[in-house]
């Protein structure tokens, strides 16, 4: 399955249709998400778009058209990575209005946040927003059971199995950095932090059978 960022990138250019008609792709977002009362792309659809890409990538959703509803989804993160969700206030921090998109990065001086989202200039696009409008970042969790191979992983290993481990640790709030498929010192340290939450498995930084069983158990409890 493609990840959220890949799916969102594939929709760049989807644009509202002016007048009484609506872009059928935007209406499809609503149908796929079972938001049946959405019939016009004149209605704000940034949250609809994020619900759709989350659905297609097997991640949790808010099932809500309000942008700020995403502040109740996933786990809060401070050091956001590309593919995390970013929520902005709009018009006033004290209002209910906002905007939500996929975080891509920030400007060198940190004053602008680059965001991939729907309803940005009436289309799916990449746009920069001011950093002082950020309400928070969220990392969405998988709604499906994560399956791992039975391979033991340790520092120095590489590949998709390592990437799956890194993604799973981040879904639980253990920041192993970018999921690059490289089992380096940061992944080892983060895995030890996770192992220490068990109280019964070895804190050795090795993804062995007992650690794998414990990780699957914890992930199941979060679904």
TrEMBL record:
- Coiled-coil features, chain-numbered ranges: none
Domain Peptidoglycan binding-like, by residue range, is 158-215
Q: Where is the Peptidase C51 domain?
A: 40-119
In its UniProt entry, what is this protein called? TIGR02594 family protein
Taxonomic lineage is: Bacteria, Pseudomonadati, Bacteroidota, Flavobacteriia, Flavobacteriales
């Amino acid at each position: 399955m493609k990840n959220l960022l890949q799916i969102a990138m594939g929709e760049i250019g989807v644009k509202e249709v002016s007048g009484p008609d609506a872009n059928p792709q935007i209406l499809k977002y609503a149908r796929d998400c079972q938001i049946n009362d959405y019939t016009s792309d004149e209605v704000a659809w940034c949250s609809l778009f994020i619900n759709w890409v989350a659905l297609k990538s097997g991640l949790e959703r808010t099932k809500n058209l309000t942008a700020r509803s995403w502040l109740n989804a996933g786990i809060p993160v401070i050091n956001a990575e590309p593919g995390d969700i970013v929520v902005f206030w709009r018009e006033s921090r004290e209002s209910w209005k906002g905007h939500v998109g996929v975080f891509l990065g920030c400007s060198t001086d940190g004053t602008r946040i680059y965001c991939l989202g729907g309803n940005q200039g009436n289309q799916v696009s990449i746009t920069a927003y001011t950093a002082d409008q950020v309400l928070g970042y969220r990392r969405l969790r998988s709604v499906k059971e994560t399956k791992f191979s039975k391979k033991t992983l340790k520092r120095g290993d590489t590949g998709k199995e390592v990437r799956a481990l890194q993604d799973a640790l981040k879904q639980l709030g253990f920041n192993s950095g970018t999921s690059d498929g490289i089992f380096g010192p940061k992944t080892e340290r983060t895995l030890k932090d996770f192992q220490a939450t068990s109280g019964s498995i070895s804190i050795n930084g090795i993804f062995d059978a007992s650690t794998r069983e414990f990780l699957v158990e914890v992930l199941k409890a979060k679904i």
